[in-house]
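Please decode residue identities from the backbone states below.
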């Protein structure tokens, strides 16, 4: 996949950064390099346009988790492919919780990295195309979903209610879509890890809980007393958009 895509590589190991620069340029990308977290944030927030970021976790100064979180806090939703030498599922989930959209453990095969990057750009392209083609025609639940005065627009990656609009990351959109597609049934943490995060290793699946807390802030009137996104103790979660109980237990 080639095209006029602008990619920022955030990597402090010079030989790896130069290798990525050379190979991505050979694939048709325009590539810049930042050697630390502060330089990356400065470049990403100075008004320049980037289509994607390859973000290493272990950086001098601000690490990759902090860079991703800072970008999302500033309403910057550039797709992030996080590179981590710490391949533990807990670290992967921490990256997603910080705002990453995909991850790749080091050492990696170059062809796999390029495939992951292309896939990330395709996903963003599909969302943009869906937003551009949005008309008065009826849409199915894969494009949008409305419940309790809230609308999740999967084409524009936005969640709107009467008083606010929240921009979603690609991963947040994927997770909400999976919850919508499986509404009313109990979904285990293990299933969510495998089907949404694509994490298959044995791990403490409760690491997903912090991510779900954030979703509750988006969709619940009282996040500490969830009505729509409920915990099933010892198992996982259940999304109840319509027939919800009157009294939800506090979390």
């Amino acid at each position: 996949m080639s095209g006029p895509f602008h990619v920022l590589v955030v990597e402090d190991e010079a030989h790896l950064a130069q290798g990525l620069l050379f190979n991505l340029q050979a694939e048709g990308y325009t590539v810049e390099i930042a050697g630390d977290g502060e330089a990356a944030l400065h470049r990403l927030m100075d008004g320049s346009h980037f289509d994607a970021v390859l973000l290493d976790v272990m950086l001098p100064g601000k690490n990759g988790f902090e860079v991703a979180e800072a970008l999302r806090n500033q309403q910057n939703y550039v797709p992030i492919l996080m590179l981590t030498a710490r391949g533990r599922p807990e670290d992967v989930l921490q990256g997603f919780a910080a705002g990453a959209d995909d991850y790749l453990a080091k050492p990696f095969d170059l062809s796999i990295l390029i495939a992951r990057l292309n896939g990330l750009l395709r996903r963003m392209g599909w969302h943009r195309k869906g937003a551009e083609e949005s008309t008065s025609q009826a849409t199915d639940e894969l494009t949008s979903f409305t419940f309790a005065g809230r609308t999740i627009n999967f084409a524009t990656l936005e969640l709107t209610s009467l008083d606010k609009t929240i921009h979603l990351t690609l991963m947040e959109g994927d997770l909400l879509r999976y919850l919508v597609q499986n509404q009313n049934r109990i979904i285990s943490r293990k299933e969510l890890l495998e089907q949404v995060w694509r994490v298959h290793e044995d791990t403490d699946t409760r690491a997903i809980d912090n991510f779900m807390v954030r979703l509750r802030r988006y969709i619940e009137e009282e996040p500490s007393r969830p009505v729509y996104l409920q915990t099933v103790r010892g198992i996982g979660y259940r999304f109840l958009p319509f027939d919800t109980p009157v009294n939800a237990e506090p979390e």
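Observation: Residues 110-132 form the longest helix (23 residues).
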